[in-house]
Amino acid sequence: MSRVGGARRPRQEEGRASVGGSCAHALPSRLRSGRSGSAWWRLVEISRLGGDCPLNPEAMRSGAAVRAGRKVCRVLLSGFGGRLDGGQAERLTEGSSSLGGPLSSHEELPRGSEPREAPESGSGGSEALVEMCQRRYFLSGTERQLSRESLLSGCHPGFGPLGIELRKNLAAEWWSSVVAFREQVFPVDALHHEPGPALPRDSAFRLVSAETLREILQDKEMSKEQLVAFLENLLKTSGKLRESLLHGALEHYVNCLDLVNKRLPYGLAQIGVCFHPVSDTKQTPDGVKRIGEKTEASLVWFTSARTASQWLDFWLRHRLLWWRKFAMSPSNFSSSDCQDEEGRKGNKLYYNFPWGKEPIETLWNLGDHELLHMYPGNGSQLYGRDGRKSVVPSVLSINGDLDRGMLAYLYDSFQLTENSFTRKKNLHRKVLKLHPCLAPIKVALDVGRGPTVELRQVCQGLFNELLESGISVWPGYLETVQSSLEQLYSKYDEMSILFTVLITEATLENGLIHLRSRDTTMKEMMHISKHQQPPTHGQSCLTHPAPAFQAFLKQITAITSFIER
333-339 and 185-187: which strand pairing? Predict the structure, then answer.
């Protein structure tokens, strides 16, 4: 019992009066009226009231859930153990926590140097990887459609949602490395088809109207000679599907040369889909060629012939280090010299798949032949300045196959380890330990036992906050099929999700949440302590949120930068 205005009132009524009375002005009308319907926003608004507003037990449970979400984000950011609310932090040692070691360890030990399970190799491991990628939305199609030849040639049905995200992250890293932080490289774009007459030995696919071709073949009055002549003329005048991005970059050369005031060197970068003919006797016994597709990342570098070889060596080293940076086993990426039919020198970068090495990127010194062929009779506009001299530049073509690169990282990160959840030795735990920069999804939100509606509303609120901050999240709480924790963790490991956050009834009651790391498999149960401070005199609870809430919003935006280090 307590006194309010000289009258004695039960404590239960006092709790309701405290929230709806002295602090009623601080609550939005949608909360005062009880029409919100969203547990997350009730938690957020109530938690912003601060220490001056006494809360009833339900409000305290709601506040604990919000504080749980805040601490999850701070823990993902910090890399520290122990207290995070002002106390002295204790650094975690390597392997002692689900969050791994201190950030400095990433600088001291290159990725792949730390002790780990050996990736599975051989045909058995390849089949297990392809089957898992089908099941976990990295690849689309049947087992027959996803053969080794189909994956390498680009004749498979395509990628699933997680595969698209993985390739998008790989392309973003390439773009940042080659374009975004270089003052001499500019982005360009071009059409998927190239106009112009057909050249001798040109094997590119041509774009021909099916209706036009059908009319020609149905014309019975046309002789065989007339039919052949008409078809040859049709092929000469039809556009062809591009086999590389080089042609599009050369088209932009003159305009971009003026952009840099004719000063060499400079580069043009582009990412796009290219097409190439594929002969597959298994699929087409009659010898008809199929169309293979690949997503290519291209850098065309224009420099003087005097420095072309030095620049080729520079880009070779840069590209090889870039591929190795995201690998669990960097030594699987290698390079070798090569030479084409015309005697032009270049280099190829390879990844060592279980069946052998396959090229993933090529670097060529094409000289000035390509430019002179593109602009016949207009050589004067091709000259760029190399110091005090004006020269026609040599062309360095650097082409990376992002689809093969994505396949290489899937094989590189795939591991079969002993399953700690079962005693059967023939059952293994499958994990995709993709680099944090490349992982399609960073955090998975899921619920345990407890009131389903309230827990899902809390997860939905946290899901929206993470998405607004640019963090990719998997909404596991929407799953209607009940699964054990072992099945849940195995699923997220196969999806290469970095962290799993489990919201349970304990989160609402006492502020306990579960956090699990993909790489260490260690789980932490964290207790949420009070850390909010009341607003100062004269400040509204809504216009001046608690410092912890402001810190939460600020820190959550940096989660990606932390987990990608």
Answer: unpaired
The answer to whether residues 252 and 390 belong to one domain is yes
Residue 148 belongs to some domain of the structure = no
Distance (Å, whole) CA 297 – CA 92: 39
Beta strands at 443-447 and 473-475: parallel, antiparallel or unpaired: parallel
Name beta bridge partners: 298.
270, 399
544 domain-assigned? yes
- 386 is a domain residue: yes
Residue appearing with tokens 């912003």: 48
Taking phi over 0 as left and psi of -120 to 50 as alpha, with beta for the rest, 342 belongs to alpha
Q: Report how far residue 432's alpha carbon sits from residue 439's, in angstroms, rounded to the nearest whole number.
A: 9
Look at residue 127 and tell me if it is in a domain.
no
CA 511 from chain center: how many Å?
Answer: 32
Helix (H, G, I), strand (E, B) or coil at 429: strand
Tell me the mean pLDDT in the region 479-508.
Answer: 90
Q: Write out pLDDT tens, residues 406-424.
A: 999 999 999 987 766 555 5
* In a shared domain, residues 375 and 459: no
Q: Residues 250, 330: one domain?
A: yes
Q: How far is CA 431 from CA 116, 417, 419, in A?
A: 12, 8, 11
Nearest to 46 by CA among 24, 71, 72: 24
Q: In Å, how far are 366, 382, 442, 447, 455 from 504, measured between CA atoms?
A: 61, 67, 20, 6, 7
CATH of the domain at 91: 3.40.50.800
Count CB atoms within 10 A of the CB of residue 374: 16
Burial group, residue 45, by CB count within 10 angstroms (0-12, 13-18, 19+): buried
> Is the CB of residue 445 less than 8 Å from the CB of residue 475?
yes
Task: Say how many domains are in the chain.
Answer: 2
Considering the domain architecture, whether residues 445 and 396 belong to the same structural domain is answered as no
Residues 460 and 514 in one domain: yes
- 383/494 same-domain check: no
Boundaries of domain holding 288:
184-192+242-400
Say yes or no: 264 and 360 in one domain. yes
Per the listing, tokens 């499958």 go with 430
Q: Return d(Cα 187, Cα 123) in angstroms, integer.
A: 40
Among the listed residues 293, 286, 280, the one whose alpha carbon sits nearest the alpha carbon of residue 242: 293
Backbone angles phi, psi at 121, to 5 degrees: -125, 170
Give the least confident one: 6-15, 176-185, 319-328: 6-15
What is the predicted pLDDT for the residue at 420?
A: 61
Nearest CA-CA partner of 264 in 225, 300, 227: 300
Of the chain, the percentage scoring pLDDT greater than 90 comes to 38
